[in-house]
Amino acid sequence: MSDTEVDTEASVAGKPTKYCLSSSALTITIGNQTVPLRNVIAASYHPNARLLKVAYVTRRKTKGCLSLVQLDGQVEDAQADSANNMAKTTLEWAYKGVKPNRRLKVLVNPHGGVGKAVAIFNKSIEPVLRAAGCILDIVHTKKHGDAYDIAKSLPLENYDAVVSVSGDGLVHEILNGFANHAYPRKALRVPVAPVPTGSGNGLSLNLLGPDDGFDVIAASLNVIKGSSMSVDVFSIMQGGKQTISYMSQALGLMADLDLGTEDLRWMGDSRFVYGLLRGLIKFKACDVQFSFKAVEKDKKKMFDTLRSRPPKVDAELAHQLPEPTEEEENWALPEPKTSLDETEGWTTFPEPLLFLYAGKGPYVGRDFMAFPVSLPDDGLIDIMAQSTKSITRTDVIASFGGAANGDLYWKDSTRYIKAEAYRVKPLSKKGFLSIDGEAYPFEDFQVEVLPKLATLISSCGSYIAPFHEPASKK
Ligand SMILES: Nc1ncnc2c1ncn2[C@@H]1O[C@H](COP(=O)(O)OP(=O)(O)OP(=O)(O)O)[C@@H](O)[C@H]1O
């Protein structure tokens, strides 16, 4: 069928309504809605009832969140054929290159964020996924570790994706469950998509951008229509045990503000701001030795590399989610390449650290774009290291003013490194280590990058995080 326009008419709630479909949008004259085809999630014609049903997500206010609209149009006999054609063509064009009716394992964490995940899921998320015809297998996690166990024994062939209705911690569990699956690499090819209902929703922000990152309907649309994106993850060796991290590792101030504020969960993500202010009052150095194997230290070069990789155009996206195949021989995780005693090419950070933050994905939270030049699959880990020597408490408070825009990156006092590996050796017993927002022992660990091992669902094949070069650095 060619991409020419298709028209029909029906009566919606007693009002005569015209439908006009083009290759990019569906225009419905009721309220004069023009809906991009990406936002159309279902269309069907029911000859017995002579009903044309269309479902889409749209914004009622320009800057508002998306909401679900389901229109039932009563069709006259004379329009039956064109209505039937409209439904078929709309569905075909709205899912161009995308498999409809995705089979989803949905994990809902009732404890996530301020404890409203179940209510939000029932009221807003599930209706959208069901309207799109997704096949849902929903589990409410009952305790810490459930998501890990489910992912570890997931029958991979049964699902197109795993949906995490929580914050960043549940995704950490899912990916670690996959890493311990009988077929780890194969499991890690099952795409994971977050729907933001936790207190830390950095992954959702990275995939959907600051405008949509907290919009559960935008995240649901990503689950329905998004394309697969391979991403690097990190292997963390600690006490002979391997953990997979996909987002961040934090020590010092940045770990204290997360793990040290667990008791303030009721505050939502404001607890991180509170934690930051509390940490700044103390302004205590984190007693560790930090060494790294740097690949790039030049901020301008890293920024230029980011700029040279604009978001992909539609035709370049992997719309079809990867199908696990039996042909690949080695489904085991790759062995870490970096030995624990290797020293060649390593540098030890010479100053006391206020914080160390390492990871992937620009946003670590709504208020902090910690890794603005991070790329999903460059095979490197971005590290931000802040010495207590080169900065005062007042400077830190001032620089956090622009933290949501990544301004900290450009501060001369902030060291920013892209590395292939790093290691940390605590020099005292007391401290926090946060890995993807979860608490880990404050003990020696070593990190290296496992390139393109995990899979996420993304709308444009890259992170969405507006980041600019200040005039003074051009
Ligand atoms: N039913 C449950 N009761 C208690 N904890 C649970 C339950 N289900 C999952 N968890 C745990 O809740 C933790 C928080 O998950 P997640 O990070 O996704 O949400 P969050 O609200 O952003 O939390 P955080 O602020 O700690 O990052 C995870 O460690 C997970 O194992």
Automatic annotation (TrEMBL):
Example GO biological process: sphingosine biosynthetic process
Cellular component aspect of the GO annotation: cytoplasm; membrane
Record region (Disordered): 321-342
Species of origin: Collybiopsis confluens
Domain DAGKc per the UniProt entry, residue ranges: 99-240
Protein name: DAGKc domain-containing protein
Coiled coil regions in record: none
One function term, GO molecular function aspect: lipid kinase activity
Top-rank lineage group of the source organism: Eukaryota
Pfam family of the protein (one): DAGK_cat
